[in-house]
Amino acid sequence: MSTLVIGDIHGCSKALDHLLKAVGLRSYDKIITLGDYVNKGPDSKGVLERLIKLNKTGQLIPLLGNHDIIMLEARTDKKAALDWFYKKDGNKTLASYGQNDLKALSNIPNSHWNFLEKKCYSWLETENFIFVHANLNPKLPLNQQSQQDLFWKKLDKPLPHYSGKTMICGHTSQKNGKPINLGYAICIDTWACGRGWLTGLEIETGRVWQANQKGDIRTSWINDYYTRPIALPANQEVVHAL
């Protein structure tokens, strides 16, 4: 069994389809998605439909992203809905549901709300890895992390988590289309909704697949992107798990 981790999708259903086809996952392989399924791209509806189907088979473990939280807030808060629509690309999300105005909120199926609200995790921890959408406080266990760190904090000179586990995250988009690999922290948001790529990382081997909306595919290895951190405290050991 292999495990594929996928970065921020942001409504790019075609890139997701191309990526999954290129990887050729088997029915018993696992997929972990790092959140931000909606907004910015053209087909948030299609992305959620694909993920819901994968989740029902037991193959997908989805995390929640800050853009998914923004969409959930817009469902019940009129002020949040206006902010989402005009400032956070909610108009693009609603257009994928049939009309480019806030009335389209009623077009979103309950299954889509249920997926975001009840099926997505805030974080995931395994023997060697910690998966989050945005970032971590390196001194705290997962159950004590703040919402700000988990969903909103950018990846700016992160320190290793005290557990020694490698953090894999999205959120901080890499406009050059290349993942960040510091050994103890890996970011695979590579700007799928812009002119970049949707990235999938197989954690057992370090193999990287990337696809874009046009159907272009490229492959590499996560160690191709390894960059030694410029400065760490003297007592901090760099963990290079892949």
From TrEMBL:
One of its GO terms (biological process) is RNA decapping. InterPro entries: Ap4A_hydrolase (IPR050126), Calcineurin-like_PHP (IPR004843), Metallo-depent_PP-like (IPR029052). It holds the Pfam family Metallophos. CDD domains: MPP_PPP_family (cd00144). It comes from the Bacteria. GO terms for cellular component: cytoplasm. One of its GO terms (molecular function) is phosphatase activity. Residues 1-171 form the Calcineurin-like phosphoesterase domain. This is Serine/threonine protein phosphatase.
